[in-house]
């Protein structure tokens, strides 16, 4: 595993619960690495991935490090002959994403990107209903995801916030349309003391005419009911809503539903039951589904069709265009960089 911070530690637990052996860990933070390795009982540790791969020969490298390191670490692991699970975002530019895709093809290894929303039960059902013709021809998507204000102040702006929050919904939109984005217009606002924008609204125009609005605000106050409190060592709130508008019907959902509310001595909790809930001592939900899927892909037991790398690259291209549109203050055309994206664009 490369990166054993908050989510890396949870990943290690889930991979183990699904039968994987964790043979080595690396992290640039020596104290964090020692703590997590001690807790997991993993003896082989290193401060960087190349020196770890000189000591162990894993089948799979799980990349859960800071966003800016994902593409390079993934290519390093591919060149060492490993399959790779890499957390979102796959990369911080379309060019880097396609570089990873090319490296995977050259190495003959699989890359599964951690676009967890593709495995969350409500979105899975929405996609099935759509593809089954339940609401007719897809016309538009409205996707919104708000996060805790305190997260923004602690890590939300370590890369442009689009890569932290909007990338989930941009990838979801790509998964619903199965097409690349052609054009993006975005606007942003920031709370007074912030350097990076804490509120983003983007309009994506897909090839084929579908439009999607993607909105994100990192302004949920601590007084709001907590939705994350449990398996991931991160307390706070995610408030996400999605609408899929078809010619013959509309699908609507909330990521964290309020059908279970807990009023406790430390405040109100509306616990997430879809992403990584603890069920009978193990981690369930979308994270378990996602890791189980990756293991099946890596073992050649199923095709890599739930998170196609090409679609993930389209999502990264679109996210890059959102950042570019914010910088330009104008709409941006998404450049056609990928090896296959020219088809039908
Ligand atoms: N899919 C989801 O819902 C979800 C949820 C949380 C986090 N994430 C993603 O997981 C990743 C990690 O997030 P986090 O919250 O655990 O962050 P974190 O800051 O807690 O952990 C990141 C760790 O990576 C380490 N690191 C940085 N550069 C490294 C390198 N070159 N090699 C090895 N280790 C390195 C850091 O020292 C740190 O320990 C991010 O990409 C984040 O977007 C995804």
From TrEMBL:
Residues 1-113 form the Gfo/Idh/MocA-like oxidoreductase N-terminal domain. It comes from the Bacteria. The keyword Oxidoreductase applies. The keyword Ubl conjugation does not apply. Gene3D superfamilies: Dihydrodipicolinate Reductase, domain 2, NAD(P)-binding Rossmann-like Domain. PANTHER family: BCDNA.GH03377. This is Gfo/Idh/MocA family protein.
């Amino acid at each position: 595993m490369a990166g054993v911070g908050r989510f890396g530690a949870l990943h290690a637990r889930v991979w183990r619960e699904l039968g994987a052996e964790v043979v080595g860990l690396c992290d640039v933070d020596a104290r964090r690495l020692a703590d997590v390795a001690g807790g997991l009982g993993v003896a082989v540790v290193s401060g960087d991935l190349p020196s770890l791969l000189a000591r162990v020969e894993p089948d799979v490298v799980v990349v859960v490090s800071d966003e800016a390191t994902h593409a390079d670490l993934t290519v390093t692991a591919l060149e060492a002959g490993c399959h790779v699970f890499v957390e979102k975002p796959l990369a911080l530019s379309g060019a880097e994403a396609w570089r990873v895709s090319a490296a995977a093809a050259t190495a003959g290894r699989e890359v599964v990107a951690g676009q967890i929303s593709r495995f969350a039960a409500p979105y899975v059902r929405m996609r099935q209903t759509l593809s089954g013709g339940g609401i007719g021809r897809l016309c538009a998507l409205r996707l919104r995801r708000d996060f805790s204000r305190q997260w923004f102040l602690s890590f939300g702006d370590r890369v442009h916030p689009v890569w932290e929050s909007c990338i989930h919904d941009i990838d979801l939109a790509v998964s619903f349309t199965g097409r690349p984005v052609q054009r993006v217009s975005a606007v942003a606002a920031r709370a007074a003391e912030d350097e990076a924008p804490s509120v983003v609204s983007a309009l994506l125009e897909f090839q084929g005419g579908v439009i999607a609005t993607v909105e994100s605000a990192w302004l949920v106050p601590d007084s709001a009911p907590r939705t994350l409190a449990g398996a991931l060592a991160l307390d706070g709130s995610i408030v996400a809503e999605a609408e899929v508008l078809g010619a013959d019907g509309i699908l609507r959902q909330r990521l964290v539903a309020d059908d279970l509310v807990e009023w406790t001595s430390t405040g109100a909790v509306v616990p997430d039951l879809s992403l990584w809930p603890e069920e009978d001592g193990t981690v369930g939900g979308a994270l378990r589904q996602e890791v189980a899927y990756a293991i099946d892909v890596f073992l050649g037991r199923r095709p890599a069709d739930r998170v196609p790398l090409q679609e993930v690259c389209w999502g990264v291209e679109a996210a890059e265009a959102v950042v570019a549109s914010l910088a330009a203050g104008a709409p941006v055309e998404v450049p056609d960089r990928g090896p296959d994206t020219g088809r039908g664009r």
